[in-house]
């Protein structure tokens, strides 16, 4: 295909529209909204869409500056054009899905839905032209390209790793990276602080929030949105979501979404049985102008009181490697059908099944939630939340085959220096309730390869103690995993105006440079060396 052909095909498929100064909508109307943000020296394309037409040619028609493609997360519909770009960046957890081709069966399944969608638009068009006049050039769905049946999405280049708080310098304009897990562990937003523009990916959706997939968690989503609303309070002018024909909303949408997610997570917003776009069953929590989708059955199970602690204060649950993911606190059973991955890549983080945490939650619900929060942080390489889960006392200790690390500073230095070795999943959890205010947990984790195969195992014994501010780990003993995959490079190179984040894991061997003990009289510092807010909460 010649360059002219590519531009012509791009012009037929994409809607290109300025939305702010040196900022353009690059939309596949009804499918994905990408956005091009230009500075004096370079530009950023937020997501690369489906890959049905040449998004690079579309973006190149708007700017002559070098373009960095940034994926808001690793799902198929946000990375289809990555292979057309030499410079790509994303959260480190997105790398496994971005560097492999999208399976042909997933593309074929999406094409079937896309054809159904366009047929629905054709039925709507006459009524809209006669009565409503709502559709514009930028919001009118296009017929599929003639070559759609030959659609492929090749593997893309390895992305540079982006860290929360990192700034992308475009020359006279900066975009700040915000890690926003919930829809997926690798989700991020980009924020133009100067102009108040939030490029939200799937973190904010003006339609259905998909929280019924295995890599989504409603309580994580709720915490992310509340934290985002607080962090950006008074500074957002416009929000640009990645889906539906409403590609621009005001800052109030963020606050309403945060309120809605908190209500759903707390069980205060009833749901009704329904389906998603692909006609898969889901529990729909409908609000004024958006809906939150959760797995069917989760609401009923959540309403069931937790069982009383057993007379013998020992709870042991073994989890099948094929068990489905579900709510974080172990109180809700995910009865949704097996994940068919029609339009999405397999997640890098696989949440534990309900049973793995139910016994711990039965001992103490807050402890169950604390362990789940730590487990998510461990699997995602969230250094700040891992550190927050451990006691700040000077005698906190972590032991592995290389010996002990004593004190918060030693633990923080170790975590900041070590990369996350790759996807993992909690296999089993054994809990022992002591006569005092401590609980011992013995957990087994699986190390997963990109194809989901188990590459190795590790065990971790933790002593949890109740403190004034909640449950904290006061001692941990770890049997390390075998190393199966090289760590993902974590530098965004010349695109970054700040330090990149190296993920951390409490199951690796410690850094040789990590101090073994905190110096006497030195207060433990906050964990911000990896570009993360020491307050935790997913930032």
Structural commentary:
It contains 11 helices and 23 strands. It is of the alpha+beta class and 539 residues long. A 7-stranded mixed sheet has the order 1-2-3-4-5-6-7. It has a 7-stranded mixed sheet with strand order 17-20-21-22-23-18-19. Strands 8-9-10-11-13 form a 5-stranded mixed sheet, with no helix packed on it. Strand 20 and strand 21 form a beta hairpin. It is globular and about 75 Å long. The relative contact order is 0.12.
Principal-axis shape equals globular
Q: How would a textbook summarize the main sheet? A: 7 strands, mixed
Percent strand equals 15-25%
The main sheet orders its strands as 1-2-3-4-5-6-7
Give the helix/strand class. alpha+beta
Low-confidence stretches: 1-5, 300-351, 484-539
- Please work out how many helical segments DSSP would assign: 11
Q: Assign a percent range to the helix content.
A: 10-25%
Number of strands: 23
Distance N terminus to C terminus? 43 Å
C-alpha-based Rg, rounded: 23 Å
